[in-house]
């Protein structure tokens, strides 16, 4: 006697589940411009590396003799695989089975993959399409009772935010708990014109609102990127998978190790002559910050995150002489680089990411302060700013700051962790103080200006005098700024910093790990 009959039965069941929701539902998925969950996994991970877990879990139909007639799979496909040779945990919603809703979900599968990532310390990728919550309204009839809301297993989602890199790919319509699973990640991507994300979709919202919305109007990629709910939007699913792989390339497998050094392909002593004139002498003129960053870090390594949210600060990952770093840079194209409430939230979340995964922080600072005015006050900018500065002071990773132009006020002070030793350099274009002279002179010297026979001439005299006193060299004399450097030497200085920082990045779970 052999076990061949049982193996034949296993293969038969696996073939049933690989049909997913059936040929008509698969065709509908393809007609909508979307891949099936199994096609997605194959394109995301290394060839042949996916090992499915729970391959025959689902809803079975038996005849009167208890022989299997049909098997509809659970609408989640998950298992272990490799990305760029590294072990990962992967899970994906199958929209062809009950539209990815909880009606066809076996909750234990979702919990298993979260626990696997957490306890075996491997990155987790969630491919999300559907709601995946407590069920649809129809569930009331099929179960004979109303569901009391609860999120069983969410504790593992929270734990993973502080343990392993977690990526969310929103690859279709995502609502309710599905949206929560997408947002509860370190890096999230939608597909333009295909994906949509919302707390509740158009059928619910349109029932309650006089204005009617379609999916893109309610929760399309532009809305969610500008709101900061999503980090990136890709033109296709394949591009979304490439974004996920690239993000993970900067990350350690877990907090128990520091990010690995990549290949050293760029000369650490490379000088960019254009940096010498990158900052205009006229303080009223703006400049483009991204080309500056890209000329300093390893060529082609800058990976921006959240580009449409909190736009006065650019955030992203990069490599410096092969070492992964977290990069922040002021963007004077938006509010002159001043911190808005959403910019503060963006920075706080980014600092938490760096702290969670032991990434040194590099900050190119040109911050004239918090945004001022009535709308700024209504946004609670000072509360958000203080929260961000607190995140900086709670961080333990190495910091290196380059003040390339402005550093004024409380927001300007939030350019480093003031409780730890930091490496701080200024370009000759650096300007700092409690307040910019522009506008501040009138407040501080009102009596002198009012008494002057020529107010404009007096203003120019005071401004000229103060400009000489606030020279960066005066600050350097008192060691208030540690060092002034030639902008063209910035890359070499930064490469020296990452070598010093590498042994002291730390490891293990941070006491202030990241929350969504």
Record the SSE blueprint.
Elements (H helix, E strand, L loop, with lengths): L3 H15 L4 H9 L5 H8 L6 E3 L4 E5 L5 E6 L2 E8 L2 E8 L13 H14 L3 E7 L7 H6 L10 H8 L4 E10 L1 H7 L3 E5 L4 E3 L3 H7 L6 H5 L1 H7 L4 E3 L2 H14 L38 H8 L6 E3 L7 E8 L2 E8 L10 H16 L4 E7 L6 H5 L2 H14 L4 E10 H5 L9 E4 L4 E3 L3 H8 L1 H6 L3 H15 L2 H6 L5 E2 L5 H12 L15
Parallel strand pairs: 5-6, 6-7, 7-8, 7-9, 8-10, 13-14, 14-15, 15-16, 15-17, 16-18
Antiparallel strand pairs: 1-4, 2-3, 4-5, 11-12, 12-13
Helix pairs in contact: 4-6, 13-15
General description of the model:
The protein has helices at residues 4-18, 23-31, 37-44, 107-120, 138-143, 154-161, 177-183, 202-208, 215-219, 221-227, 237-250, 289-296, 341-356, 374-378, 381-394, 409-413, 437-444, 446-451, 455-469, 472-477, 490-501, and strands at 51-53, 58-62, 68-73, 76-83, 86-93, 124-130, 166-175, 187-191, 196-198, 232-234, 303-305, 313-320, 323-330, 361-367, 399-408, 423-426, 431-433, 483-484. By secondary structure, the chain is of the alpha/beta class. It has two domains: 14-250, 2-enoyl-CoA Hydratase, Chain A, domain 1; 273-437 and 472-504, 2-enoyl-CoA Hydratase, Chain A, domain 1 (Alpha-Beta Complex), CATH 3.90.226.10. Strands 1, 4, 5, 6, 7, 8, 9 and 10 form an eight-stranded mixed beta sheet that branches. Strands 11, 12, 13, 14, 15, 16, 17 and 18 form an eight-stranded mixed beta sheet that branches. The protein has a two-stranded antiparallel sheet with strand order 2-3. The mean pLDDT is 92.
């Amino acid at each position: 006697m052999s076990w061949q009959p049982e193996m034949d039965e296993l293969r038969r069941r696996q073939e049933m589940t690989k049909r997913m929701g059936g040929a008509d539902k698969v065709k509908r998925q393809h007609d909508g411009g979307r891949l099936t969950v199994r096609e997605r996994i194959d394109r995301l991970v290394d060839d042949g590396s996916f090992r499915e877990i729970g391959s025959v879990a689902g809803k079975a139909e038996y005849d009167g003799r208890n022989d299997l007639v049909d098997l509809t799979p659970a609408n989640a496909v998950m298992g272990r695989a490799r990305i760029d040779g590294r072990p990962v945990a992967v899970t994906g919603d199958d929209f062809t089975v009950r539209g990815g809703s909880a009606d066809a979900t076996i909750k234990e599968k979702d919990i298993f993959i979260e626990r696997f990532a957490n306890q075996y310390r491997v990155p987790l990728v969630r491919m999300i399409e559907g709601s995946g919550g407590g069920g649809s309204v129809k569930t009331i009839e099929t179960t004979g009772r109303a569901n009391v809301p609860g999120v069983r297993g969410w504790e593992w989602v929270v734990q993973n935010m502080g343990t392993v890199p977690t990526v969310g790919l929103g690859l279709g319509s995502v609502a309710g708990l599905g949206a929560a699973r997408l947002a509860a990640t370190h890096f999230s991507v939608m597909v333009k014109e295909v994906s949509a994300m919302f707390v509740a979709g158009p059928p619910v919202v349109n029932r309650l609102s006089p204005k009617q919305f379609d999916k893109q109007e309610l929760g399309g990629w532009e809305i969610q990127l500008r709101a900061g709910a999503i980090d990136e939007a890709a033109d296709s699913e394949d591009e979304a998978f490439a974004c996920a792989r690239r993000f993970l390339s900067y990350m350690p497998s877990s907090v128990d190790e520091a990010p690995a050094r990549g290949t050293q392909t760029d000369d650490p002593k490379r000088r960019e002559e254009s940096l010498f004139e990158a900052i205009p002498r006229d303080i009223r003129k703006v400049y483009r910050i991204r080309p500056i960053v890209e000329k300093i870090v390893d060529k082609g390594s800058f990976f921006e995150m959240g580009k449409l949210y909190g736009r006065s600060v650019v955030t992203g990952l990069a490599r410096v002489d092969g070492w992964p770093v977290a990069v922040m840079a002021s963007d004077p194209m938006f509010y002159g680089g001043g911190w808005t409430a959403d910019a503060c939230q963006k920075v706080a979340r980014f600092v938490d990411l760096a702290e969670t995964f032991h990434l040194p922080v590099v900050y190119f600072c040109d911050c004239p302060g918090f945004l001022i005015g009535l709308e700024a006050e209504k946004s609670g900018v000072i509360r958000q700013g203080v929260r961000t500065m607190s995140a900086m002071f709670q961080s333990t990773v190495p910091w290196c700051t380059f003040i390339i132009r402005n550093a004024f006020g409380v927001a300007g002070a939030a350019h480093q962790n003031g409780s730890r030793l930091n490496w701080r350099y200024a370009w000759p274009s650096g300007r700092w103080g409690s307040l910019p002279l522009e506008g501040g002179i009138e407040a501080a010297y009102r009596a002198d200006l009012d008494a002057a026979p020529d107010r404009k001439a007096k203003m120019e005299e005071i401004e000229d005098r103060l400009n000489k006193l606030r020279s960066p060299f005066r600050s350097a004399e008192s060691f208030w700024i540690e060092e002034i450097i030639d902008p063209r030497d910035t890359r070499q200085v930064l490469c020296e910093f990452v070598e010093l920082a590498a042994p002291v990045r730390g490891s293990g779970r941070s006491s202030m790990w990241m929350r969504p």
